[in-house]
Every structure is written in structure tokens, then in C-alpha cells.
Amino acid sequence: MGVRDWPASPRSQLGVSGAEPPLPPMIAEFQQTLRRFALEVVRPLGMRLDRMSAGEVIAPGSPFWEFHRKYRELGIGIETLRALSPEDLSLMFPILFEELGYGDAGLAISAGASTLPLLLAYRFDNGFLLERFSDSQLGCWGITEPDHGSDQLDPSGQLLDSRGRYGKPNCVATLRGDRIVINGQKSAWVSNGPVAEICILYCAADTGSGPDPSHGCVLVIPLDLPGVSRGKPLDKMGQRALPQGEIFFDNVEVGRDYLLAGPEDYQRAVYCIHSEANGLMGGTFAGLAQAAFDLALDYAHERRQGGVPIIRHQSVQHRLFHMYRKIEAARALTRRVILYNNTAPVPALQAAMTSKVTGTQTSFEVASEALQLFGGNGLTREYPLEKLLRDARASLIEDGCNEILAIKGGCYLIDEARLR
Ligand SMILES: Cc1cc2nc3c(=O)[nH]c(=O)nc-3n(C[C@H](O)[C@H](O)[C@H](O)COP(=O)(O)OP(=O)(O)OC[C@H]3O[C@@H](n4cnc5c(N)ncnc54)[C@H](O)[C@@H]3O)c2cc1C
């Protein structure tokens, strides 16, 4: 369209996900399907789960199981992802999590955590584990421990205070010959922990000279092995649809085939999973922010004060603009980072961290501003805003506290060669 063909007062109507450039037809259809799924399935189930106790969330017949059954029916498993080109994968992956996050962030994280064991098996090109396990099994990622939360992001010790030391790990895998024996526990924060069937376990390794957390190991294991038990599901403030809880290991034994990364590969494995998970988080919480914005935009057209819809008030327009601006930036950043990381020879963890920090910070700021636009109604459980704000708040800690990610990401900006 030439400029003279524009309407006399030009304006452009944005699509469901803002200033979206034309997507390839297959991806556009995928996005539409996912948006319907988010609105018709994920959001209503997430709202029901939000009102339940942690025990009710994981009980047989709960909406949590309905979500996973319907999500599996979409057929977005590891085989589908493996068949895509890196470019298509880099578009579909963020859109998948944006849309799931648009529905319910806790359920989006449950789906994301579930894919991590097989996604990492794929990234490490481990044929045994890809054959042994399937997408129909609910997965989880056990890395943090009761005594080691932020520490677990830092196997290279970059964050360690000069007076500090890691101390005793809470979970150790003893590697002897072709057998591995696991003892200890992971923290109460393992997403899907109370119900997962398989776990990608990051823990200290003992190869004969005592446990060494900086040279840990990574295993993908079934959770029906003798010696595995679970803690009580955790009751928490936000993302209540996401079950979380400890996993305990009492002399749990597996063969060496289940080892995804040994001590020599441990730092690579930590780097790899954080590069994946931080991108996924960026997408999910850009989606949550979009949901809060859409609700606030609708409300601003409906709610009248001073005899006019509140969107007529200049301060409301100003606030909505800044919410919209932040979401566009968070979404664009995440997609760019995921494309870079899927196509570069080595992904940039500092870039993935920008996506996580920006997406989650945006979700918190936008959900808070959206609640403010709802006035008193924003505070009541009759309206969806207080839930979105609770869900967004948890994300600033989840997958690494944002301040830790910023320090760690800053470490990757140092060019040692320039300092010599
Ligand atoms: C919703 C949710 C989902 C999660 N899912 C999983 C999961 O699937 N699997 C899993 O294993 N874990 C999971 N976690 C755990 C999560 O990764 C940790 O909560 C997070 O890494 C922080 O650890 P922590 O809670 O022990 O806090 P701590 O590490 O004890 O930190 C407490 C405070 O101290 C600050 N701090 C700590 N160390 C430093 C430092 N070196 N420099 C400056 N400040 C510091 C932190 O920023 C924070 O403010 C999840 C958490 C949440 C909230």
C-alpha cells in the first residue's frame, strides 16, 4: 500500500501478539491454535487450580491432569521439535511458551519443565535416553537443593564470595564402574517434583575422592526406581497450578547409560540447560504480560469514571502505552535470543539471561500496572489480575533470582583478553 492509499487519519490495528511481522503460514496457524488452546483450555484450568490446595492439584482427576492430557493431544513433542529447522524451531518455541503463558504461567512452566529431560538428551544427542523415555512421561528438573539455591547456578564459582565455600552438597551420585548410586535430596522447589515420572537430575558427583559440586554430573532417570520418594506438595503464593516438591534418593541405583553428562561435561550441561530454560521463561512471562495488558485494555474501554471510559483519561493512555512498549520489547528480545542461541555454534547464556530477566520483570511490572488500572476490582479474587500478579511475582525468583542472573550474565561480558 502506498502512503496515498492509507486512510486520511492513518493507524494500524495490531494483531493478537502486537506488532507481529507476517509469520510463515504453518507458524501462523500454530500460533492461532495455541491462542485458542490458551483461552479455552489453559486459562480456565489454571484458574480452577489456583483455588485448590497443593494436595488437590495433584490428586487424580484434577484439572492438572486434564491440562497435560490435552497438551499432549496437540502433538508438540520432542520428535516434532527435532524435525524443525533451527529457524522454524526458533519461532515456534517462543510462540509456544508465549501462548501457554498467556493461558496460565504455572501450567506453562509445568509443560516446559516436563520437556527438559528429553530436550537435553536431544541437545547431547544421547540415543539411549531418547529411546528409553517418551514425551508421554511427565518430566522434571532437579537441580536446587535445600542448602544450595543460587549456588547451583554457579558451578564455576564466579559468584562465590572470597570468604565463601560451597559446603556440603545435599545430593550426591557415586560413580563406580558401570553403576551409579544416588543419595540425598533436591529442594522443595522442583517443578512437577511431586508427580513427575522422569527427572533430569543435576547433582554432585563422587568419582572416588569425595563429592565435588563443581564437577557434578547429570542423569536422566525414571522416578519409579526403588529408593525414590517425594515430599509434600508445596503450598505457595503464585503459580499454584504448578506442583512443586522435594525428591528424595535413598541408594537409588542406575546403570551408566543413564548418565547424560559426567564431571568433565558438567559445566557445559549447566550452561546448556540454563540457556534453554531462560529463553523459555522469557517467552512464558512475555505471554503473561500480554494477558494482563489485554485484560487492562478491555477494562479501560468498559469502566467509566468522570462520565467517560477511563481510557479517555490521558494518564491511562500513558500507562497502557508503557505496558504495551515493554511487552513488545520483551517478546522481540526473547525471539531474537532464541534464534541466536539455536543457530550460533555456542549459545550465549548472557543473552538467554536478558530474555529471562526482561520477560519476568516485564510481567511483574505490567501485571502490577494492570491491577492498578482495575482499581479496587484488581484486588479481588472476582477478577483475574491479582492471580496474574502473584504468578508474575514468583518468576523473579524462579530459574535463578533475577539479581543473580544479572551478576552471572555480567561475568560473561568480561573479555579476559582485554584485561591482560
Ligand atoms: C516457581 C519456582 C519454580 C522453580 N522450579 C525449580 C525446578 O524446576 N527445579 C529446581 O531445582 N529448582 C526450582 N526452583 C528453585 C529456584 O531455582 C531457586 O528458588 C532460586 O535459584 C533461588 O534459590 P533460593 O530460593 O534457595 O534462594 P537463595 O539462593 O537462598 O537466595 C536468597 C537471596 O539471597 C540472594 N543471594 C544468594 N546468593 C547470592 C550471591 N552470590 N550474590 C548476591 N545475592 C545472593 C538471592 O538473590 C536471594 O535474594 C524454582 C523456584 C520457583 C520460585
Please characterize this protein's 3D structure.
The chain is of the alpha+beta class. It has three domains: 25-125, Butyryl-Coa Dehydrogenase, subunit A, domain 1; 139-265, Butyryl-CoA Dehydrogenase, subunit A, domain 2, CATH 2.40.110; 268-414, Butyryl-CoA Dehydrogenase, subunit A, domain 3. Helices cover 50% and strands 14% of the residues. It contains 13 helices and ten strands. The strands form two sheets. Strands 1, 2, 3, 4, 5, 6, 7 and 8 form an eight-stranded mixed β-sheet that branches. Strands 9-10 form a two-stranded antiparallel sheet. Strand 9 (304-305) and strand 10 form a beta hairpin. It is globular, with a radius of gyration of 22 Å. The protein starts with 24 loop residues before the first helix and ends with a helix. The mean pLDDT is 96. Flavin-adenine dinucleotide binds at residues 113, 141-144, 149-150, 159, 186-187, 189-191, 239, 394, 397-401, 403-404, 407.
